[in-house]
Amino acid sequence: MNAKIIGTGFQLPVYVADNDYLATLVETSDEWIAERTGIRARHLAREETTTSMAADAARKALAASGLRAEEIGLLIVATISSDTETPSTACRVQAELGLSGALAFDINAACSGFLYAVHIADAFIKSGFCRNALIVGAETLSKLVDWTDRSTCILFGDGAGAAVLQASEKGGVLSQSLGSDGSRWEVLFCQGRPNGNPLCKTAGQPGYMRMDGQAVFKFAVRTVPVCVEDVLQKAGVSGDEVKYFVLHQANSRIIQSVAKRLGQPEDKFPMNLAQCGNTSAASLPILLAQMNEEGKLQKGDKLVLSGFGAGLTWGACLLEW
Ligand code: ACO
Fold first, then answer.
1. Cα-atom radius of gyration of the chain, to the nearest Å?
2. Which pLDDT belongs to residue 197?
3. What is d(CA 147, CA 33) in angstroms, rounded to the nearest whole number?
4. What atom of ligand 1 comes closest to residue 313's alpha carbon?
5. Residue of 154, 215, 214 lying closest to 31 (CA atoms)
6. What was the pLDDT predicted at 192?
7. Distance in angstroms (rounded) separating the CA atoms of residues 230 and 311
8. Is 278 annotated as catalytic?
C-alpha cells in the first residue's frame, strides 16, 4: 500500500504586500528583490493565523477528497510558526474540523516539513495504523521575521496548503529521500521566546529569523539535485518521465540552477514565488493545490516534490498522481 493524494486545498491571507511596500520599511527595491529572488509580492497575515489558515486549507482538501471528517485517522501539521506553544496546531485544526478519529500532532522540519509529513503519513498508512491521513503545511512567517533586516524580511510570506492521503494499491508515493544535518543549525535559525526564568543566566534574545543566505543557497543547489536523483533511481524512473518537479519556493535562481543540474527544461518547474514568496512548510502544498485547481495534474502523472530548509533538513519524493 502506498499513500496517494486524493484531495488538496490551500489558503492565503487576503493582504498582498508587494516589493514597493517593503521598500517603505527597509532600504531595498523591487528591482533588487525580483532580480535576486524572483519574488514580487507575498501574502501577509493581518486577521489570519497559522491555525485559521491551516484549518481553511485542510477543510478544502477534505472536501475535495470526498471523505467525511470521521474517516481521517491521522492529522499532521508541519509548521515552525504555531500560534500556541501547546497544544499543537494540529490539535486545534482537529477541533475546528471535527476530526474526532484522528491522531493529531505537529512536526517541525522548516521548509522540508511537508515532505517529512508525507513520509510519516505514508509510513502510518503502510503500517495499517490508518487508511486516510490529512497533512498540512501552515506558516505565519511574518511574525518570525525581523522587519528591520532587509536580507530576510523580503523573502517570506504566509499561507497554508493541505493534502488528503489515502491507502492505494496503485500509484501514490513511489519513493522518498529525506535527510537532516543538525551540525549546521546556525546557518538558519529563529530563537524562541526569551527565557523568563529568574534562575537562568542566559539572556533572552528576540525570536527573529537569522540566516546566512549564501550558505543556504549553496546547500540548496547542491543537495536538491542529489535527493531528486535518489528518488528517481530508487523507483527506476527517468527524469524525462517526470511531468513536473515541484520544488520548495525559496528563490527562482535556486530552482533554475536545479533544473540545469538535472538537465530538465525550466517549464517543468512550476513557480508561484513571484506572488507568494517563501512560505516554508506551506510552500509545496500551496503550489501543489494551485496546480491541481488549475487542472495541470492528470491521473498517472509522475511528480517529484523536493525541499530544503532550516535544520538543516532536505527531502524529495516521487509521486504518481
Ligand atoms: N535589498 C537591497 N540590498 C540587499 C538586500 C535587499 N533586500 N538584502 C541584502 N542586500 C545587500 C547586502 O547588504 C549586500 O550588500 P554589501 O555587498 O554592501 O554587503 C548585498 O546586497 C549582497 O548581499 P548577499 O547576501 O551577498 O546577496 P545574495 O546575492 O546572496 O542574495 C539572498 C541574498 C537572496 C538571501 C540569497 O542568498 C538567497 O536567496 N539565499 C537562499 C535563501 C533561502 O532560500 N532561504 C530560505 C531557506 S528555507 C527555510 O528553511 C525558512
1. 19
2. 80
3. 15
4. 50
5. 154
6. 83
7. 20
8. yes
